[in-house]
Structures are given as C-alpha cells and as structure tokens.
Amino acid sequence: MRTADEVLAAVGATGLLPAGAPVLALLSGGRDSVCLLDVAVRLGGRVRALHVDYGLRSSSADDAAHCQALCERLGVALEVERPERPAGAGNLQAWARDVRYAAAARRGLPVATGHTASDQAETVLYRLASSPGRRALLGMAAQEGGVVRPLLGVTRAETAAYCRERGLPFVEDPSNASDAFARNRIRHELLPALRAVHPAAEENVRRTAEILREEAAVLDEVVAGVLGGRGEIEVDRLAALPPAVARLVVRRLAEDALGHAVPRAARRTGDVIALGAEGALDLGDGARARVRAGILRFEPTPSR
Question: What percent of the chain has a predicted confidence (pLDDT) above 90?
Fold first, then answer.
C-alpha cells in the first residue's frame, strides 16, 4: 500500500494535472474524488470543483454540505448543481453520468474525474461480459477529449488510505453496497473471486487494458493505412485482408459514416464480403452496408 506522498508522486508523474493549469474536479464526496481534489491542489493546479446533488437520497444535502466544507478547507471554489430527473429518463446511472458530464462541459474547463484502477478493472470486466469485441478490453482512457482520469494507476484501497493519512473525511454512498447494479455485483462478487485466484488480479486486469490500449493505437494506424483516407473499400480487397484487419476496417468505415459506435459491424464482416459486387445489408446499430460496382460504403439504415 503506497503512502499519500507516493500516491501524489505517481499521479504527478502522469502529467495529467500540470501545475498552474486550470482544472474542474468532479467531487462526489467519496474517497476517490476527495483524494483527486487534494492531489490536484497539492500539485499546484488552478482547481475548481463541481458537485452534482441528484436529490435521490435523503442524505444528498449532507453530501453537498460535506463537499462545501472540504472545499473551504482546501481553498477551492465549489459549484453545486441540483438537476431533476425527468420522467422516462431510463437507466439511472446513465442519466446521472450524462448530467454530470453535461454540467462539467458547461464550465468550459478541462475536467478531472476520480476513476481509479479499481474502476478500470470493473469497467473491463463489465464490458467483457456485456459486449464482445476488442474495445471491451480497452477500458477507460487516461485522457479523452477534455476529460482526464489521473487516478487510473491508484486503487480504491489506496485512495481511502490517502484520505485517512491526510485527515480528509469522505462519505460512503449506500447505493454502492446494493447488488441491484451490475457494477456493484462485479465489485462485491467477481473481483473478490478473482483476487482469491491471484492477489494481483485487479492490477493485472488494469495493466492488460493499458497494454491493449497501446496496441490498439498501432492497429488503428494499420487500418488508416489500408483506407488511405477513403471512406470506402473494394470488396475484393477487403476479402484479401487478414480477417482481423478486415473486421477493423469494416468497423472503422461504419463508424466514420454514422458518427457513432457500431459494435456489431465487425462480426458481420463475412456477410458484408458475401454481398459481392452489388447488394445491401443492415448490420444493426443503425448501419447499412451497401456495395455498388464492387465498392463497399456505409450509410444509415433508412427509417421505416
């Protein structure tokens, strides 16, 4: 278990929280976000904090007050948003995530989240169970657009130890103990089972995601070289590619054409090639493959 100063040094080494740079820290009041906020301040950033009070629990006002007291102690300006969940908002966790990032985006600042190595392991395992494909194993990026995740190399146990050593109180969200959410079942059941197999299981999953993300960048360059900037490819040429590269090409073409993820495209590569010189095929996820004169392109599936 690393000390608070060792955690600070490890996060500083990522370069994701440079001294003097503005950053908006998302602050829930839990161990991870409290650790993030203190680290960002100690590294010399121009830190602001955002807390979103969803009002879903009777203690949510206490959480907001806790965040306010912490920010006053650390000399950080805090903004609090209190959204109302509309009827028919769908998945609760997805709605909360969307609200949180939308609120952060309105501030126009680089955003830092408290996602840890433990969250990374849970994310990989969740995606691996729920959606096949290479991307399931890549996990969360340390930097993605205007969002940075400086704690991806720090475990949840280490953020708790950091807060205790620094004398920083944090709150526990009771919903984290509920097995109603799939991620909680991974946290409470699957990860402990994996640690029983090997004590470094969590770190091994995290490190695997990191390695695969680096290797994915190489594969992306291979696909870019095959396409040469074009949004189409000859079906005969696609069929001659190694199967793994062909799948990646199909997915890239579909996602570039539609502007969103098309996870089912890759596994339909054989069906796309079978279209031959002329034909069309709906792949799901709103994507249609169309071949004319032996040239494959993608387009949105027409509305019925």
Answer: 57
